[in-house]
Design brief:
Blueprint (H helix, E strand, L loop, with lengths): L3 E2 L2 E7 L7 H9 L9 H6 L7 E9 L2 E12 L6 E6 L3 E2 L2 H17 L4 E5 L7 H10 L4 E2 L6 E6 L4 H6 L3 H12 L3 E6 L2 H13 L12 H10 L5 E8 L2 E11 L2 E9 L8 H15 L4 E6 L12 H10 L4 E4 L4 E4 L2 H20 L11
Length: about 375
Amino acid sequence: GPPVSGAIRVEAVHDPRPEDCDEVEALVNALDDGHFQQYVRWAAMDTEVAGARFRLYTAREDGALAASALVRLRRLGPTPLRIAEIPGGPIATSAAAHQALLGPLVEETAASGALALVAAPYLPAHREPARAAELAAAGIASPLPGPQPATLVVDLRREPEEILAGFRKTTRNLIRRARREESLQVKEAGSDADAATFQQLYDAMGEKGATPRPAPFFHELFRFLAGDPRRGFVLFARAAGQVLAGTVVLRHGTRAIYAFGASSRDEPALPKGHLIQFEAMCRARQDGAALYDLGGFTEGIGAEGERTPAQQINFWKSGLGGSPAPLFRPRQAILRPWLKRLEEVSRRLSAGWRRHGAPQPSSIKDP
């Protein structure tokens, strides 16, 4: 039967059904450190992880749901090898529930044959010591290599004009000009037709490095948000009946997360992208959010003339007045050390082949 720790009861469900997980999703939505990748419905709709297997672990403290972890078992390429990941989790209302959850979770994951288990809770760095100690007690102790992850956060606990005053001067001027444009309006969206429009805009952004999200992802996402307004909202910027930009914002506790954005190349003189972000901040503030999270900022803004594509996006974000906020560095447990080393060697060899043996892109530019 399910493991029990004192008054804490831990349960595991393999391949959970979204319709059975409303209580879990309410917990994810209610916590500031919740993250949309821990929604069971997200696992069902996210085409990026199609084919992955999932397990849901929950812990109840005195009968009330107190912790949850949606574990993704991701296959490594065409091999039978798998990595277990907890993107945006685990989440917990108490340290006791979190620790009770981790024991059976790690034990079952090791028995599944996974090479490693990676936990990536979405937490500010100042909470890292306590959460890292809880993970380490369960054997999830090694920080993942790479730079410290970070995001960019705007404080919404001010009046809208004060928020705007914190933007870069050029960004402020663009937004004020956009607000004077009578033809440019920002309104809420969410219908199936809106989802199809957003999909088209997003697909056209692929060359800028956006992660592909084939249909029906946005149809499912828009329906998910429409099912409960507390989950988030979608805004469109329109001019002369044409959708020029869209943004998708998800809510977790007092945090609003900018999850997806897309814009048209039409009407380039209209500063629709900056305007829609300011309006999204105002809407999130009206809904009770204290922070507006602009997403990945790990690479910073770089130097003028030397920015990577990610740094170009970050430079654009930085005009919106946010403060860089370091995040919890994901931790991992190596469950099959020799197989994990073999996988790492294979990955390095594959990267080397792509670097030295694969055809190089043409240097000819479009006119």
